Amino acid sequence: MKVSVVVPALDEEARLSDALAPLARLRDAGHEVIVVDGGSRDRTRDIAAPLADRVLVAPRGRAIQMNTGAAVASGEHLLFLHADCRLPAGGVAAIEGTRLAGRRWGRFDVRLVGRSPLLPTVAALINWRSAITGICTGDQGMFVERALFEEVGGFPPIPLMEDVALCKALRNKVGRPKCVTDRIEVSARRWDEHGALRTIVQMWGLRFAYWRGASPHLLARRYYGRDPLPVPRLQVFAKPPVAGLVKTRLAATIGSEAALAVYRDLLLHTLRIASVARRAGIVSDVELWVAPDAPPGALASWGEQHGFALKTQSGADLGERMRNAARSALEAGTPAIIVGTDAPDLDVEYLARASAALQAGDAVIGPAEDGGYVLIGVSRELPIFSDIPWSTPAVLEHTRERLRSVASRWTELPTSWDVDTAEDFARLTTGASPKASA
C-alpha cells in the first residue's frame, strides 16, 4: 500500500520542517510527500523542496490546495496533514490496519501543543465529538482511499468547512470513519494567540452557523477577516473537429484525417484536464469557446458531457476574440485563463500555477517554444491582445512589451510546446519531453 501525504501550506517557514522532517522515513519506505503552497510570501517552498517529493503551487485555500495535491498523487491512500501537525510514528501502520479491517477512511486523535492549561480538555472534547458524530476536523489527519475520495468528488472547493463537508459525504457513502487513537500533535498557536475560551466559542459558533445553513464564504470572512480570493474562469479556445479545418499545417504532411485524429486526441486531453481542474476548485468554471468557422459538431456533445458552457468566439482576429472572451469573465468579477487545445503537456499542476499567479498579479503567460504561448491569463483588462503579429515567433515578445508598457505584474510559467508541424508530431509520437525552463 502506497500512501500519498498531502500537506497544504501558506507562510509556514517557521513550522514546516517540524511537520515534514519526520516524514522522511515514509519516503524511504516508498510513500510520497506532496506539499501544496497557497502563495506564500516567505521561504515555505524553499524549506519544503528537500523534504518533499513534489512541491506544487495552487490558489489559496486548503480545499483547493489539498485537491490539487490529490490530483497528482500516485498513492492508493491519501493522508491530509496540515503544516502545523506532526504525524505519530505509527501513522501509516494505522492506515494499513484500517484498510485490512475493511474501513475505507478515518482520522487520528489529536494532542494540542501550546501554553494554555485548557488544551488537554479541548483536545479530549475534539476527539470525543469526532467519535460521536463521525465528523473530523482537518487537524485530525484525515485519510481516505484515493478511489473513494474521487467517488465523492474530493473536498468541496469552499473557503471554510471543507473538512466537515467531505466527512459528511464520506459518511453518507460508506459509513463512519475509523477513529485511530494514536495522536497527532497539533500546534495550538490559534488558541495561544487568541485565548483558549475565545477560540472555542468562535469554532463552535462557526460550526453551528454552518449547520444552520450559513454560506461558507460568509463564515470564511468572519474567520479570516477578509473575502476569499477569486479563482479564474478557464476558457478553452477550440475549432470544430472537422477534417481540413484543424491542424492544416500538420495535415499538409500527414493528411487531413490523420491530423484530425491528432487534434481530437489533444482536444479530449485538454477537456479532461479542464474538468479535473474545475472539480478541484483550481478554476471556478470552464467555458468552451468555439471558433465560428463551422457548426460546433462534436464539441457540443463533449462540452455537454463535461458540463462546460458552449460559447462562440467573436472578433476580427484571434486577439480580438481572446479579448472579448476574457472581458466577459472580468465583467463577471473573475479573472480569466485562456488555453488552446494543442498543448500535450498541459496538466492540472500547470493550471494550478497559472490560477495561483492571477491571485498575486495582473497576468500569467505559459510560453511556447515557438515564440507564442500555450496559456495566457489576466486578472484585469490589459492592452495585450491588439496589434500582435499572430502566428509568428514574435507573439510572446510583443506581449511582454505590452505588459512592460503598463507596468504590469505578471508571471511566466515553465516553457511548454504545442503540436503544429510534422516535427511536433514526431515528437508527440515518440514521447519526447518538452524543453522546460523556469
Topology (SSEs and partners):
Elements: E1 3-9, H1 16-20, H2 24-28, E2 32-37, H3 44-48, E3 54-57, H4 62-72, E4 77-80, E5 85-86, H5 91-100, E6 105-113, H6 119-133, E7 143-145, H7 146-151, H8 162-174, E8 178-187, H9 189-194, H10 196-211, H11 216-224, E9 233-238, H12 248-254, H13 256-280, E10 285-290, H14 298-306, E11 309-312, H15 318-331, E12 336-339, H16 348-360, E13 363-367, E14 373-378, H17 395-405, E15 410-412, H18 422-430
Parallel strand pairs: 1-2, 1-4, 2-3, 6-8, 9-10, 9-12, 10-11, 13-15
Antiparallel strand pairs: 4-7, 5-8, 6-7, 12-14, 13-14
Textual characterization of the structure:
With 438 residues, the protein is α/β, with parallel strands linked by helices. It folds into two domains: 222 residues, Alpha-Beta Complex (Spore Coat Polysaccharide Biosynthesis Protein SpsA, Chain A), CATH 3.90.550; 198 residues, Alpha-Beta Complex (Spore Coat Polysaccharide Biosynthesis Protein SpsA, Chain A), CATH 3.90.550.10. Helices cover 43% and strands 18% of the residues. The chain has 18 helices and 15 strands. The strands form two sheets. Strands 3-2-1-4-7-6-8-5 form an eight-stranded mixed β-sheet. A seven-stranded mixed β-sheet has the order 11-10-9-12-14-13-15, with helices on both faces. Helix 14 links the parallel strand 10 and strand 11. Helix 12 crosses helix 13. The chain is elongated and about 70 Å long. It starts with a strand and ends in an 8-residue tail after the last helix. 45% of the residues are buried.
Characteristic key phrases:
438 residues, alpha/beta, Spore Coat Polysaccharide Biosynthesis Protein SpsA, Chain A, elongated, disordered C terminus
